[in-house]
Automatic annotation (TrEMBL):
<comment type="similarity">
    <text>Belongs to the peptidase C56 family. HSP31-like subfamily.</text>
</comment>
<dbReference type="InterPro" id="IPR029062">
    <property type="entry name" value="Class_I_gatase-like"/>
</dbReference>
<dbReference type="GO" id="GO:0006508">
    <property type="term" value="P:proteolysis"/>
</dbReference>
<dbReference type="InterPro" id="IPR050325">
    <property type="entry name" value="Prot/Nucl_acid_deglycase"/>
</dbReference>
<dbReference type="InterPro" id="IPR002818">
    <property type="entry name" value="DJ-1/PfpI"/>
</dbReference>
<keyword id="KW-0378">Hydrolase</keyword>
<dbReference type="GO" id="GO:0019172">
    <property type="term" value="F:glyoxalase III activity"/>
</dbReference>
<dbReference type="GO" id="GO:0008233">
    <property type="term" value="F:peptidase activity"/>
</dbReference>
<keyword id="KW-0456">Lyase</keyword>
<dbReference type="GO" id="GO:0005737">
    <property type="term" value="C:cytoplasm"/>
</dbReference>
<dbReference type="GO" id="GO:0019243">
    <property type="term" value="P:methylglyoxal catabolic process to D-lactate via S-lactoyl-glutathione"/>
</dbReference>
<protein>
    <submittedName>
        <fullName>Intracellular protease/amidase</fullName>
    </submittedName>
</protein>
<keyword id="KW-0645">Protease</keyword>
<keyword id="KW-0346">Stress response</keyword>
<feature type="domain" description="DJ-1/PfpI">
    <location>
        <begin position="27"/>
        <end position="223"/>
    </location>
</feature>
<dbReference type="Pfam" id="PF01965">
    <property type="entry name" value="DJ-1_PfpI"/>
</dbReference>
Length: 228
């Protein structure tokens, strides 16, 4: 049995308070189901601890699939999203992998969380796996290793593309262009030829998925690495 730390957002809205956002639920549940089938222990953390709000768009058909619906309809699992751990309650030595989920909320609270950066750095430097899906890769933008190098510099990554932001109709509301910021940090950003299709990029122990449709494939790749 391995131990996996899922990271979710605390941000409930865009800069405009009337524009709600939060965790894209299926990006958590698809991975959770795959890791649970492998018998792994799983826990939830967030930048501030406490409640993780849900992205309303992800709770509508056809985006609310059976996996996400089962979680939403289970009071015990929903309670987990009310009681996520703050970074200062997490000992990175307890975990074999960290998995950053998405939803637009993460763009506001993942990039500059020193606590999440500490956890990620220590898991990575102990030989653990660092994973992210969709906007979750914003949590890797500013993580530096003990020698001062950025974790993503010179490494292949993917995540929600700017083209996908435009097609989703929310590009103008974004606080920054995540794809471009990754490139500025020296990451070797890659994306699928078509938007919104599953796409996973693995660079050793760094495993990233481009969009919500990539969550299952991302988790399966992490699960294979954990078996090895």
């Amino acid at each position: 049995m391995k131990r996996i730390l899922h990271v979710v957002t605390n941000t409930a809205h865009y800069d405009d308070p009337s524009h709600p956002t939060g965790l894209w639920l299926s990006e958590l549940t698809h991975a959770w189901d795959i890791f649970a089938a492998e018998g792994h222990a799983q826990h939830l953390a967030s930048p501030q601890g406490g409640r993780a709000p849900l992205e309303p768009r992800a709770l509508r058909w056809p985006l609310l699939d059976a996996s996400a619906r089962a979680w939403r309809d289970d009071p015990a699992r929903m309670a987990l999203l009310e009681e996520t751990a703050a970074p200062d309650r997490i000992d990175p030595a307890d975990y074999d992998a960290i998995y950053f989920t998405g939803g637009h909320g993460v763009m506001w609270d993942f990039p500059d969380s020193a606590g999440l950066q500490r956890i990620t750095r220590e898991i990575w430097e102990r030989g653990g796996i660092v994973g992210a899906v969709c906007h979750g890769y914003c949590g890797l933008l500013n993580t530096r290793l003990s020698d001062g190098r950025l974790l993503v510099a010179g490494r292949r990554v993917t995540g929600f593309s700017w083209r996908e932001e435009i097609l989703a109709g929310v590009a103008k509301a974004m606080p920054f262009e995540a794809e471009a910021e990754m490139a500025r940090r020296g990451a070797l950003y890659r994306k699928a030829l078509l938007p919104f299709v599953p796409h996973v990029v693995a660079d050793g122990r760094l495993v990233t998925g481009q969009n919500p449709a990539s969550a299952k494939a991302t988790a399966r790749h992490i699960a294979r690495l954990l078996r090895e």
